[in-house]
Specification:
Shape: globular
Oligomer: single chain
Distance between the termini: 18 Å
Structural class: alpha+beta
Radius of gyration: 24 Å
Length: about 450
């Protein structure tokens, strides 16, 4: 960032007496305040206009009035935000390795996450839903006024396809995301407060707006379909490389969607670290650039169409949430006997995870997750922690006052033990955390 060296202009008629200096100082301060407020007002108006252009109204496709959930209703309560990365091959996305439109026609929810922000903003839980999970898709209203038939044991990533009736234009996003929202609410038995639909080209711009993200590539990748060819090591990935890594599947790990979700969570974790590392007081332009790129990357629900509210929520999360309390988890699923290419929720663990989000509680004991530092951990059993003397006696588990049941106390104790880095999780963190960027960067 360049800085302008401002020097006072001296005139021979300037009175440097006590009152003259006071008047000069006040004049400078007033001019500065007027400049800042007018600039902030201009930027706010610009961001608000951009947000308004990205709002998707789904009231015609769902029961009840979604517009009544105003941004102010987020204050003081937990928030569940549905985030869907679309699998449309048309438009700009087709030029960046997303694939051929004829190969996979229509909108699909390729990557789906539910972001749960706790009421006190101290905890963020991001739940990924595997695309191959078999779910019941309810009847969904479509753009032409018709209604699709409810479908049982259908692949989850077809929810948007059913709502959009196979369409892939901007006009089909509203019925498509409405169907995904209804499907998630049906499977989770909880309310989704807001949503975002992210496109591929927009994700690239978001990463580039941050100046790239540092990320540790564990092994050499040669993926023709994702157009990703990169050596192992610590790299600063640009937007195009980040998207390619996020989409890469068969050339890494076991080639499954589950392993890809794990890599996606690592990448998003790195993105959040990059955001938290920036000083938005001295580098407010960085936040503005990122927000503008983010706005252009997404379509949002009406209650996210307010620049002031969204910026406040983002800054609250970035400032109040410790990285250890940013948890990325995949919905527990298992392979059914009848089809190795599909997944079904693993019960009762899947229901326990949904229930924790619904009640604004910590993840249940035994849940595997990736934290904001990139460490792959498991929520520990507090009973086992009590049986083994802690290496740090001063670390006493605390109870979240919002959790008033016996189960919530148990869950919160487990969460506290994780945050305090008990011996087992500390060892796992040291072993699995991606040490990137290099210390001497």
């Amino acid at each position: 960032m360049s800085y302008v060296n401002l020097r006072p202009i001296q005139h021979s008629a300037v009175n440097f007496g006590r009152f003259g200096l006071l008047r000069s100082t006040l004049a400078i301060l007033m001019a500065g305040v007027l400049f800042v407020t007018s600039t902030a007002g201009f930027l706010y108006l610009r961001l608000s206009t951009q947000f308004a252009n990205r709002v998707v109204d789904i009231n015609a496709y769902v029961s009840g009035d979604q517009s009544k959930a105003t941004p102010d209703s987020f204050e003081g309560r937990a928030v569940n935000i549905l985030v869907v990365g679309t699998d449309s091959r048309n438009g700009a996305s087709g030029d960046i390795g997303a694939g051929d439109e004829d190969e996979v026609p229509g909108l699909r929810n390729d990557s789906t996450m539910v972001i749960h922000v706790s009421a006190d903003r101290s905890r963020v839980q991001v739940l990924s839903i595997p695309r191959d999970t078999l779910v019941d898709i309810p009847a969904c209203k479509q753009r032409d006024g018709s209604t699709s038939d409810p479908v049982e044991n259908e692949m989850f990533n077809n929810a948007m396809f059913y709502g959009a009736d196979g369409g892939n234009t901007d006009l089909d996003i509203a019925p498509g995301i409405a169907c995904v929202k209804s499907t998630v609410e049906k499977m989770s038995n909880m309310t989704i407060d807001a949503f975002m639909v992210v496109n591929f080209a927009g994700f690239i711009n978001m990463i580039d707006a941050l100046g790239g993200i540092w990320f540790n590539i564990p092994e050499r990748i040669d993926d023709e379909s994702a157009r990703l060819f990169i050596d192992a090591g610590c790299w600063k990935l640009d937007g195009t490389q980040s998207l390619a890594y996020m989409r890469s599947r068969k050339a890494q790990g076991d080639g499954s969607d589950i392993s890809r979700i794990g890599r996606q969570q690592q990448l998003i974790s790195a993105m959040l670290r990059e955001l938290q590392a920036k000083d938005y007081v001295t580098d407010s332009g960085a936040l503005l650039t990122f927000l503008q790129a983010a706005i252009q990357a997404v379509n949002v629900s009406q209650n996210l169409g307010d620049a002031s509210s969204d910026t406040s929520l983002l800054l609250n999360v970035l400032s109040k949430t410790d990285r250890a309390n940013m948890q990325f988890v995949t919905l527990p699923v298992v392979e059914p006997d009848w089809d190795p290419n599909r997944r079904v929720p693993s019960e009762p663990m899947a229901a326990n995870v949904w229930n924790a989000l619904k009640k604004d509680q910590a993840l249940p004991v035994g849940t595997a997750y990736t934290d904001g530092n990139g460490a792959q951990l498991v929520v520990p059993d507090p009973t086992a922690a009590k049986a083994t003397p802690s290496p740090t006696p001063s670390a006493t588990p605390s109870v979240d006052p919002s959790e008033d049941s016996a189960q919530s106390t148990t869950d919160n104790t487990a969460q506290s033990a994780s945050v305090e880095n008990n011996a087992a999780n500390e060892a796992a963190a040291q072993k699995n955390a991606a040490i990137c960027p290099p210390k001497d960067k």
